[in-house]
Write a structure and sequence with these properties.
Layout: H1 4-7, H2 13-25, E1 40-45, E2 51-57, E3 65-69, H3 76-87, E4 92-96, H4 113-130, E5 137-142, H5 144-155, E6 162-166, H6 172-178, H7 196-200, E7 206-212, H8 220-228, E8 236-240, H9 248-252, H10 254-267
Parallel strand pairs: 3-4, 3-5, 5-6, 6-7, 7-8
Antiparallel strand pairs: 1-2, 2-4
Helix pairs in contact: 4-5
Length: 279
């Protein structure tokens, strides 16, 4: 991720409170078959000693393993529904709680995201080897989590098969402005803190972008700038007819999971079965 001195600019109360307020106590009831008790707990130790809580929703060992970074609006119910939907295809979902949120220790911090996500990746990598998992690794994130997923994917390009970015953003200032955060009063200066555009140009694998056509935080025009930076010809932008950026999975229903499954199947060299012609 961007150097910590750039991300430090985002560690101010207004931004922290806006991005992490729902992650501290938003749980809710899940609709799917999974529950919190279904998840296997892992603990990652960040560089400064902070314990980061992680969960594994096991799928089939040979199928994809998605390392997921939630959005600032994600709830416990939404994550469990995601695990349930992907689980029907045998996909393993592995998530982390940001520091200071839910079961992770410490206080919320944007500048700590690079070290926390790296610790998360390393503990998952150890688990992967110990459990003799064989399926490919995919990074996925929503909104703020999309920036974290992109950064980690760039650092471990050769270890991943693909990247999924839902409700992502191109420029940090545009994202914060869309969140109604008064950036003019924050004194942001220098390089873009997340540098998503330059990172995307350095990531060589295919990317699946999922974006609402009615996203009021980051417009389609803004996200297309980020899509254009992708180096892979297999990258695709899926525009979802939802009410807002927060209900893409809900409004798309089963199609949401089918799009992800088909995208990953193509990366694995699998082709959909042709329908037989009626005689």
């Amino acid at each position: 991720m961007a150097e910590s001195n750039h991300l430090n600019q985002l560690d101010c109360p207004e931004i922290i409170n806006s991005l992490f307020k729902n992650r501290k106590d938003s749980h809710g009831m899940a609709k799917g078959s999974h529950s919190v008790s279904d998840a296997e707990a892992l603990t990652a130790i960040s560089r400064d000693g902070t314990e980061i809580y992680c969960r594994v929703f096991r799928g089939i060992p040979e199928e994809p393993h998605i390392l997921f970074f939630p959005a600032e609006y994600d709830s416990e119910a939404g994550i469990i529904d995601l695990a349930t939907g992907l689980g029907q295809f045998g996909i393993t979902l592995i998530t982390m709680d940001y520091r200071g949120c839910w079961k992770s220790d410490g206080e919320p911090s944007i500048s700590a995201l690079p070290q926390d996500s790296e610790a998360f990746y390393q503990v998952v990598k150890d688990w992967y080897v110990t459990e003799q998992r064989a399926g490919p690794v995919i990074f996925m994130g929503r909104s703020l989590g999309a920036a974290i997923a992109l950064d980690l994917a760039c650092r471990h390009d050769t270890d991943s098969m693909a990247l999924i970015m839902e409700s992502a953003f191109d420029l940090t200032e545009d994202f914060l402005s869309g969140m109604r955060i008064r950036i003019n009063e924050l004194g942001l200066s220098g390089e873009d803190p997340f540098s998503n555009r330059s990172k995307m140009s350095n990531y060589s694998k295919a990317v699946l972008f999922l974006h609402s056509h009615r996203d009021e935080v980051v417009s389609l025009n803004q996200i297309e700038w980020l899509v254009a930076e992708s180096r892979s010809k297999a990258t695709q932008l899926q525009i979802v007819p939802s009410e807002c950026r927060e209900d893409i999975a809900e409004k798309a229903g089963d199609l949401y999971f089918t799009v992800i499954k088909d995208f990953l199947n193509r990366r694995m060299g699998r082709r959909p079965l042709r329908k037989r012609r009626s005689k």
